[in-house]
Amino acid sequence: MSRKVKAEGSSLLGIVNSPSNSLNTTSLIRVYDPVNRIDMVYGYGTFDFSDPMFLPKFIQRDLMYFLDVDQYPQFKYVYEYFQRSFYEQVFDLDSAQNQRIFDFLENNMRPENRFYLYDFFFDNLRPESET
Predict the structure, then answer these.
(1) DSSP β-ladder status, 27-33 and 64-71
(2) pTM of the prediction?
(3) DSSP alpha helices (H): ranges in the chain?
(4) Which of 38, 40, 42, 66 could form a Cys-Cys staple with 33, CB 3.0–4.6 A?
């Protein structure tokens, strides 16, 4: 299914959540298009605490993270309910750039693309000069 994000009255917003991260999502992108009634938040860095092998997989650096998506009103409700702050940054993108990002996110939500390995220790703890 392919959807278009309108150029007029639409924007993509990056959302950076607060540093203490009990909701387990690290990078969020909001897609807002009031013309087409799209207001979604895509979250990278989600993982499943209920997996009985969560801790061994995490320690062995074999934990599969995934991209999740939610409607913005539900996302906002959860953050407000848990008294968590988040910050939005509006990107100055043209309609073609908006569409490419939206298509990229939708492609990453496909079952075959949604899950990925992320080395928490290596990627989060290495010195900035090595990134």
Answers:
(1) unpaired
(2) 0.73
(3) 54-59, 72-81, 95-108, 120-125
(4) 38
Instruction: For residue 44, give both structure tokens.
Output: 């990278």
Tell whether the model's pLDDT for residue 1 goes beyond 60: no
What average pLDDT does this structure show over 20-42? Answer: 76
Residue type, 62: D
Amino acid code (one letter) for 14: G
- The pLDDT of residue 27 is 75
**Owner of token pair 């409700």:** 77
User: What is the rounded average pLDDT of the residues 102-116?
Assistant: 93
Whole-number Å distance between alpha carbons of 66 and 45: 6
Reference 15, options 103, 79, 100; nearest CA is 79
Name the residue ranges covered by the structural domains of the chain. 12-120
Q: Using CA atoms in the order 52, 54, 56, 60, what is the torsion angle rounded to 10 degrees? A: 150
Helix (H, G, I), strand (E, B) or coil at 64: strand
**124 touches 21 (CB < 8 A):** no
Say what the alpha-carbon torsion angle 100, 104, 73, 38 is, to the nearest 10 degrees: 50
